[in-house]
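Fold this sequence, please.
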Amino acid sequence: MAIALVDAIHYDFAKFGRPRQDIALRARLFDAQALSYLAQHPTATVVALAEGLQTSLWRLDAALPDGKFRWLTVDLPEIVEVRRRLLPASPRVSVCAQSALEYTWMDSVDPSDGVFITAEGLLMYLQPEQALGLIAQCAKRFPGGWMIFDLPPAWFARVSRRGLRTSRRYTGPPLPFSLSVAQAADLVNTVPVSARSTICGCRRDAASCSTPWCRSSIATAFSTRFDRA
């Protein structure tokens, strides 16, 4: 479906520079974490924050042909409209056409069967207080739930603020928010989380890492379980 979607858009993707595999590998990693959660909570709700044109739902559906999980898309109204035009509808999908920072979307989630929240390629674009506030609010509203997000290391975030050119025609946006592995582990002191699992945090020797995403990426993914009261 992702290939058909790209063919249908007719966008000049070449302006971003040389093709890379890290986005596809990140999607694969997020899918694996979602499948792991759904294996234990088959009727859970998956919340996709700032989903864009991701096609995770259909990949998970293909992997779980008898899947009973529910799906909530949370994204800006203009992005939701593009999704409606380009992607097929599903009776298990609900939509909140709003910013992830407008926390009223949480009222649409039934947490009784479990909640798995994805923030794929989102938090690094937020201000630190916004990103940490979102994590804290999710922890407060969905005790026992899980959240997965990815962030760049501090050095890459600093470079991005000066303007990082990936081609002659494109300069990447600044990335205001980042966390080191140690800083993410310290969330337990500020946010009610009881377990932090760094999916990949080896930034110094990525070539020897067994995680494919790490070998072609400059970010770290974190999977976080929210503490129960």
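The first helix runs from residue 2 to 9. DSSP finds eight helices and nine strands in the chain.
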